[in-house]
């Protein structure tokens, strides 16, 4: 059975705030840092161990032996008091990771809290300055190699630029308010990475970026989020902060291979890499393609968008097929197995069930104008 000190620690777990990990919020922590005085999940405890014992001293609640003074320390602090101290000034644009998030996000969050103490010293928050510049590794457009490119972020201009040659004009100028950044999608072989997606001439362009240093990549990511938030606050002065924070960046809802037919029922199925990015379903030749081959705007169920298992009579069913109906066209898609098909249907249906936000409508309207289409909002490019 447990000795009196372990029982004391188990008792402390019942205090408010101590029932979840102090860093990622996972319920039922099994570890504790006895010098900081907090309870942790296994994943965060592993990161704490990597910081060195001069920062954090970690023990398992049940499997390790506890000294009186260690129990006392946790009694004095606890998760709520530690949060008040180490998360005092987390900027609203900062992405606070959950337990399922990418390891770089979690690691940098923990380093920022306890090693750099960024959230009690805002002068250390490089990402809130409204300006950032430096070199990031960018994948070639037609070439799978990565090259160092100078990037420059400016909140005043609402731009993110990158240069192939610093002395010349920027290679691309993106409007920060119009880009999405997906943090380290699984398909990217690089550890500390993100994918930027933006519209150029009516079609989406993807940039694949990484950096060897996780702090650099997480700082850039949060700097883009901060710039977006400040621009949104100007554009929508009456919106709540929580509402705007929710619009900053969205990791892709789902990605993977599917087979797709052409517009004619007799067309053969072709293997394509599909990416569901908010209301946009894009398909690509390769997972790291620079451009999608086509993009389908996903409207609302009330406007005639829906998904069905299988294909209608006369259209070949390729095993695990499903139909995506849009007002302009029906798409016949096929997954590798039934669970995969169900996951796609579930992900797409969840998007279709949500009414369009003013931002969605604005994007759709702008795309329609750009492509000179007046009758239908559903497809904004298809090649
Ligand atoms: Zn955790």
Could you write a compact summary of the structure shown?
This protein has 383 residues and is an alpha+beta fold. The chain has helices at 4-12, 42-51, 68-76, 78-86, 103-115, 214-235, 241-245, 338-353, 358-371, and strands at 31-33, 38-40, 58-60, 131-139, 146-154, 159-163, 172-175, 180-183, 193-200, 203-210, 254-260, 270-277, 280-284, 294-297, 306-309, 321-325, 330-334, 379-382. The radius of gyration is 24 Å and the shape is globular.
Describe the fold and architecture:
The chain has 383 residues and is an alpha+beta fold. It has 3 domains: 4-122, Orthogonal Bundle (Annexin V, domain 1), CATH 1.10.220.150; 125-239, PH-domain like (Roll); 254-366, Pleckstrin-homology domain (PH domain)/Phosphotyrosine-binding domain (PTB) (PH-domain like). It has 9 helices and 18 strands. The strands form 3 sheets. It has an 8-stranded antiparallel sheet with strand order 15-16-17-11-12-13-14-18. Helix 1 (4-12) runs parallel beside helix 3 (68-76) and helix 2 crosses helix 5 (103-115). The longest helix has 22 residues, at 214-235. The protein is globular, with a radius of gyration of 24 Å. The site of zinc ion (ZN) has 9 residues, from helix 2.
């Amino acid at each position: 059975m447990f000795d009196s000190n372990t029982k004391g620690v188990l008792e402390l777990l019942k205090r408010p705030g101590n029932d979840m990990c102090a860093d990622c919020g996972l319920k039922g922590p099994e570890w504790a840092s006895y010098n900081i005085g907090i309870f942790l999940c296994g994943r965060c405890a592993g990161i704490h161990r990597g910081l060195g014992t001069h920062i954090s001293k970690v023990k398992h609640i049940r499997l390790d032996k506890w000294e009186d003074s260690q129990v006392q320390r946790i009694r004095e602090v606890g998760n709520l008091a530690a949060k008040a101290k180490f998360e005092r000034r987390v900027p609203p644009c900062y992405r606070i990771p959950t337990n399922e998030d990418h390891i770089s996000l979690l690691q940098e969050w923990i380093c920022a809290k306890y090693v750099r103490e960024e959230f009690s010293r805002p002068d250390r928050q490089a990402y809130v300055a409204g300006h950032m510049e430096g070199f990031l590794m960018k994948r070639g457009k037609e070439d799978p190699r990565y090259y160092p490119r100078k990037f420059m972020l400016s909140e005043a201009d609402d731009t993110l630029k990158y240069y192939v040659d610093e002395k010349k004009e920027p290679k691309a100028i993106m409007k920060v308010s119009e880009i999405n950044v997906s943090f380290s999608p699984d398909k990217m072989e690089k550890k500390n990475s993100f994918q930027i997606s933006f519209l150029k001439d009516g079609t989406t362009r993807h940039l694949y970026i990484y950096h060897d240093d996780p702090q650099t990549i997480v700082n850039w990511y949060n700097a883009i989020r901060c710039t977006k938030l400040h621009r949104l606050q100007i554009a929508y002065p009456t919106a709540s902060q929580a509402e705007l924070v929710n619009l900053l960046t969205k990791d892709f809802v789902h990605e993977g291979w599917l087979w797709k037919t052409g517009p004619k029922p007799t067309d053969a199925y072709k293997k394509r890499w599909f990416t569901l990015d908010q209301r946009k379903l894009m398909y690509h030749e390769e997972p790291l393609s620079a451009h999608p081959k086509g993009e389908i705007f996903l409207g609302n169920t009330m406007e005639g968008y829906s998904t069905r298992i299988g294909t209608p009579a006369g259209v070949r069913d390729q095993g695990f097929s499903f139909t995506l109906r849009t007002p302009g066209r029906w798409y016949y898609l096929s997954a590798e197995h039934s669970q995969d098909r169900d996951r796609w249907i579930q992900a797409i249906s969840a998007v279709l069930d949500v009414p369009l936000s003013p931002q969605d409508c604005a994007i759709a309207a702008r795309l329609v104008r750009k492509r000179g289409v007046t009758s239908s909002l559903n497809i904004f490019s298809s090649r």
